[in-house]
Amino acid sequence: MARRFDTPGMGGSTDLRGSIEESVRPHVGRTGGLITALRAVQARIGYLPPETESVAAAAFNLTRAEVKGVISFYSDFVRAPKGKAVIRLCAAEACQAQGGRQLEREVCRRLAIEPGATSASGDLTLEHVYCLGLCSSGPAAMIDGDLMARATPEKIVDAFDSAGRAKT
Ligand code: FES
User: Fold this and answer.
1) Strand pairing report for 141-143 and 146-148
2) Which of 60, 90, 91, 138 could form a disulfide with 128 if both were Cys (CB 3.0 to 4.6 A apart)?
3) Cβ(142) – ligand 1 distance below 6 Å
4) What pLDDT digit, counting tens, does each position of 95-116 carry?
Protein backbone atom coordinates (compact mmCIF):
# COMPACT_ATOMS: atom_id res chain seq x y z
CA MET A 1 0.00 0.00 0.00
CA ALA A 2 1.34 3.37 -0.97
CA ARG A 3 2.31 5.68 1.86
CA ARG A 4 0.31 8.84 1.53
CA PHE A 5 1.74 12.27 2.20
CA ASP A 6 -0.40 14.96 3.69
CA THR A 7 1.65 17.78 2.22
CA PRO A 8 0.73 20.62 4.58
CA GLY A 9 1.34 18.45 7.61
CA MET A 10 4.57 16.98 6.35
CA GLY A 11 6.63 20.13 6.40
CA GLY A 12 5.51 21.66 3.12
CA SER A 13 6.85 21.51 -0.37
CA THR A 14 10.55 21.34 0.57
CA ASP A 15 10.08 17.97 2.26
CA LEU A 16 7.87 16.86 -0.58
CA ARG A 17 10.44 17.89 -3.19
CA GLY A 18 13.17 16.13 -1.22
CA SER A 19 11.09 12.96 -1.11
CA ILE A 20 10.55 13.14 -4.85
CA GLU A 21 14.28 13.64 -5.44
CA GLU A 22 15.12 10.68 -3.20
CA SER A 23 12.66 8.51 -5.11
CA VAL A 24 13.93 9.58 -8.52
CA ARG A 25 17.70 9.51 -7.89
CA PRO A 26 18.27 5.72 -7.88
CA HIS A 27 16.71 5.39 -11.35
CA VAL A 28 18.72 8.04 -13.19
CA GLY A 29 20.88 6.62 -15.97
CA ARG A 30 19.06 3.29 -16.05
CA THR A 31 17.12 1.86 -18.99
CA GLY A 32 13.48 2.78 -18.51
CA GLY A 33 14.57 4.91 -15.60
CA LEU A 34 11.97 7.64 -16.01
CA ILE A 35 9.05 5.23 -15.74
CA THR A 36 10.49 3.41 -12.75
CA ALA A 37 11.32 6.74 -11.11
CA LEU A 38 7.76 7.95 -11.56
CA ARG A 39 6.44 4.69 -10.18
CA ALA A 40 8.75 5.05 -7.19
CA VAL A 41 7.44 8.55 -6.49
CA GLN A 42 3.86 7.34 -6.70
CA ALA A 43 4.58 4.34 -4.48
CA ARG A 44 6.13 6.61 -1.86
CA ILE A 45 3.76 9.56 -1.94
CA GLY A 46 0.56 8.00 -3.24
CA TYR A 47 0.36 10.19 -6.35
CA LEU A 48 2.60 12.34 -8.56
CA PRO A 49 2.66 15.89 -7.20
CA PRO A 50 3.25 18.68 -9.76
CA GLU A 51 6.84 19.08 -8.53
CA THR A 52 7.55 15.63 -9.96
CA GLU A 53 7.71 17.07 -13.46
CA SER A 54 10.53 19.51 -12.75
CA VAL A 55 12.49 17.08 -10.56
CA ALA A 56 12.31 14.29 -13.13
CA ALA A 57 13.01 16.65 -16.03
CA ALA A 58 16.20 17.89 -14.37
CA ALA A 59 17.29 14.38 -13.37
CA PHE A 60 16.75 12.85 -16.81
CA ASN A 61 17.75 15.91 -18.86
CA LEU A 62 14.30 16.23 -20.37
CA THR A 63 11.81 19.08 -20.66
CA ARG A 64 8.91 19.29 -18.26
CA ALA A 65 6.61 18.83 -21.25
CA GLU A 66 8.29 15.52 -22.07
CA VAL A 67 7.86 14.27 -18.50
CA LYS A 68 4.27 15.51 -18.45
CA GLY A 69 3.63 13.65 -21.70
CA VAL A 70 4.84 10.39 -20.16
CA ILE A 71 2.73 10.92 -17.03
CA SER A 72 -0.33 11.69 -19.13
CA PHE A 73 0.17 8.70 -21.40
CA TYR A 74 0.03 6.04 -18.68
CA SER A 75 -3.32 5.85 -16.95
CA ASP A 76 -1.76 4.18 -13.91
CA PHE A 77 -0.09 7.44 -12.95
CA VAL A 78 -2.21 9.46 -10.55
CA ARG A 79 -1.83 13.24 -10.46
CA ALA A 80 -3.90 14.10 -7.41
CA PRO A 81 -4.16 12.58 -3.96
CA LYS A 82 -6.84 9.94 -3.64
CA GLY A 83 -9.33 9.56 -0.85
CA LYS A 84 -8.65 7.38 2.18
CA ALA A 85 -10.93 4.77 0.62
CA VAL A 86 -11.05 4.06 -3.12
CA ILE A 87 -14.12 2.48 -4.68
CA ARG A 88 -13.76 1.27 -8.24
CA LEU A 89 -16.84 0.39 -10.25
CA CYS A 90 -16.51 -1.67 -13.40
CA ALA A 91 -17.82 0.27 -16.36
CA ALA A 92 -17.11 -2.38 -18.99
CA GLU A 93 -19.78 -3.97 -21.14
CA ALA A 94 -20.54 -7.19 -19.25
CA CYS A 95 -21.04 -5.35 -15.97
CA GLN A 96 -23.10 -2.66 -17.66
CA ALA A 97 -25.38 -5.42 -18.96
CA GLN A 98 -25.76 -6.72 -15.39
CA GLY A 99 -26.93 -3.48 -13.82
CA GLY A 100 -23.68 -1.55 -13.61
CA ARG A 101 -25.23 1.78 -14.56
CA GLN A 102 -28.00 1.53 -11.98
CA LEU A 103 -25.46 0.45 -9.39
CA GLU A 104 -23.31 3.47 -10.14
CA ARG A 105 -26.24 5.88 -10.00
CA GLU A 106 -27.30 4.55 -6.60
CA VAL A 107 -23.77 4.47 -5.15
CA CYS A 108 -23.21 8.06 -6.33
CA ARG A 109 -26.50 9.13 -4.79
CA ARG A 110 -25.88 7.42 -1.45
CA LEU A 111 -22.30 8.60 -1.11
CA ALA A 112 -22.86 12.01 -2.73
CA ILE A 113 -19.98 11.69 -5.15
CA GLU A 114 -19.39 11.48 -8.88
CA PRO A 115 -17.19 9.00 -10.76
CA GLY A 116 -13.64 10.31 -11.05
CA ALA A 117 -14.06 12.56 -8.02
CA THR A 118 -12.62 12.64 -4.54
CA SER A 119 -14.87 13.86 -1.75
CA ALA A 120 -14.08 17.24 -0.21
CA SER A 121 -13.43 15.48 3.10
CA GLY A 122 -10.81 13.27 1.43
CA ASP A 123 -12.61 10.16 2.69
CA LEU A 124 -13.46 8.67 -0.67
CA THR A 125 -12.45 8.47 -4.32
CA LEU A 126 -14.82 6.87 -6.81
CA GLU A 127 -13.31 5.57 -10.05
CA HIS A 128 -14.29 3.66 -13.13
CA VAL A 129 -12.31 0.63 -14.16
CA TYR A 130 -12.70 -1.46 -17.27
CA CYS A 131 -12.97 -5.09 -16.22
CA LEU A 132 -11.99 -6.61 -12.91
CA GLY A 133 -12.09 -10.19 -14.14
CA LEU A 134 -15.50 -10.91 -12.61
CA CYS A 135 -17.44 -10.51 -15.84
CA SER A 136 -19.84 -13.39 -15.20
CA SER A 137 -20.57 -12.23 -11.65
CA GLY A 138 -21.22 -8.57 -12.26
CA PRO A 139 -21.67 -5.89 -11.59
CA ALA A 140 -18.18 -5.91 -10.16
CA ALA A 141 -16.52 -3.45 -7.82
CA MET A 142 -13.30 -3.10 -5.88
CA ILE A 143 -13.08 -1.41 -2.50
CA ASP A 144 -9.54 -0.65 -1.36
CA GLY A 145 -8.21 -3.49 -3.46
CA ASP A 146 -10.81 -6.06 -2.36
CA LEU A 147 -12.89 -7.45 -5.21
CA MET A 148 -16.66 -7.58 -4.90
CA ALA A 149 -18.81 -9.74 -7.20
CA ARG A 150 -22.53 -9.10 -7.68
CA ALA A 151 -22.06 -5.73 -6.07
CA THR A 152 -25.05 -3.91 -4.67
CA PRO A 153 -25.27 -0.38 -3.29
CA GLU A 154 -25.78 -1.82 0.20
CA LYS A 155 -22.68 -4.03 0.01
CA ILE A 156 -20.57 -1.18 -1.32
CA VAL A 157 -21.72 1.35 1.27
CA ASP A 158 -21.19 -1.23 4.05
CA ALA A 159 -17.68 -1.97 2.78
CA PHE A 160 -16.91 1.75 2.55
CA ASP A 161 -18.17 2.31 6.09
CA SER A 162 -16.00 -0.57 7.33
CA ALA A 163 -12.95 0.70 5.44
CA GLY A 164 -13.53 4.22 6.74
CA ARG A 165 -13.80 3.05 10.33
CA ALA A 166 -10.65 0.97 10.00
CA LYS A 167 -8.67 4.04 8.87
CA THR A 168 -9.85 6.54 11.44
S1 FES B 1 -16.77 -6.48 -17.45
FE2 FES B 1 -16.89 -6.01 -15.33
S3 FES B 1 -15.55 -7.43 -14.44
FE4 FES B 1 -15.31 -7.79 -16.54
Assistant:
1) antiparallel
2) 91
3) no
4) 999 999 999 999 999 999 998 8
